[in-house]
Amino acid sequence: MKIKTLASALILITGASLLSACADGRYQPRELDNHFGQTVNSIKYAQIADKEAAAHPPVNSPRKLDGYAGIGVISGYRQGFLQQAQQPPSVSINIGSGSSGSSSGGK
User: Fold this and answer.
1) In this structure, are residues 73 and 65 in contact, taking their beta carbons and an 8 Å threshold?
2) For residue 73, what are the contacts with CB-CB under 8 A and spacing of at least 6?
3) Which tens digit of pLDDT belongs to each residue from 16-64?
4) Are 69 and 60 in contact (CB under 8 A)?
5) Which phi-psi region, left, alpha or beta, contains residue 57 (left: φ > 0; alpha: ψ -120 to 50)?
């Protein structure tokens, strides 16, 4: 009985020492969180061509387009694609129909 108690105490001490070895007393996760996402935001900002676009909007902005002009633009856009689209050649595949290629002319 004394051996089981000693063995369980040894296992408990060993487990506690192994778990305490994993923890670092100086670990501060806030050091990583302070700069989290900063790289992504700087890359997104670098991809903007005109950073002051809101200050000087274009003369013919889409907000000034009325419904009839918009319908004309969209229909012209779609017609351009329909005219450029080429129909693929039709292909027919016959499976299991027709003659086999060999003929039995004589008996």
Assistant:
1) yes
2) 65
3) 777 666 666 666 666 566 777 888 889 998 888 888 887 887 777 777 7
4) no
5) beta
